[in-house]
């Protein structure tokens, strides 16, 4: 399955459904399910790190607009792209070694 690493607290915000836009400086052509992996660092309180925590659906990828700031949980920045996320499925966390970009994880 395709996966992407996301730092905390944003990974947990995606898993809870409160962050519906992920921001990157690059596009993705991937549409459909993707595994969200909470990066190993930073460690913030009890938030999970170094594990896959949910599966979401990527619906679209486009330029970030000022109106996206609330759902992205960040301000617009230079070259910001938003990955529009849909359906969130929580999973039993399991260890994953994170990487940059989109990568494959065997389930």
Query: With helices defined by DSSP (H or I, 4 residues minimum), what is the helix count?
Result: 2
Content of β-strand: 35-45%
Q: Helix/strand/pairing class, anyone?
A: mainly beta
Task: State the domain count.
Answer: 1
Topology:
Elements: E1 2-6, H1 10-16, E2 21-24, E3 32-38, E4 51-63, H2 69-72, E5 81-95, E6 103-104
Parallel strand pairs: 1-3
Antiparallel strand pairs: 1-6, 2-5, 3-4, 4-5
Q: Explain this structure to me?
A:
This protein is mainly β. The chain has one domain (2-99): Hypothetical protein (Archaeosine Trna-guanine Transglycosylase, Chain: A, domain 4). 10% of the residues lie in helices and 43% in strands. It has two helices and six strands. Strands 2-5-4-3-1-6 form a six-stranded mixed sheet, covered by helices on one side. The termini are close together.
């Amino acid at each position: 399955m395709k996966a992407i690493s996301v730092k905390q607290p944003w990974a947990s915000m995606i898993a809870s459904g409160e962050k519906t836009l992920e921001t990157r400086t690059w596009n993705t052509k991937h549409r459909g399910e993707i595994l969200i992996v909470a990066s190993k660092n930073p460690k913030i309180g009890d938030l999970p790190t170094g594990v896959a925590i949910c599966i979401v659906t990527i619906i679209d990828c486009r330029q970030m607009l000022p109106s996206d700031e609330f759902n992205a949980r960040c301000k617009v920045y230079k070259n910001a792209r938003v990955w529009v996320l849909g359906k969130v499925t929580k999973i039993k966390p399991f260890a994953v070694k994170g990487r940059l970009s989109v990568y494959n994880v065997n389930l």
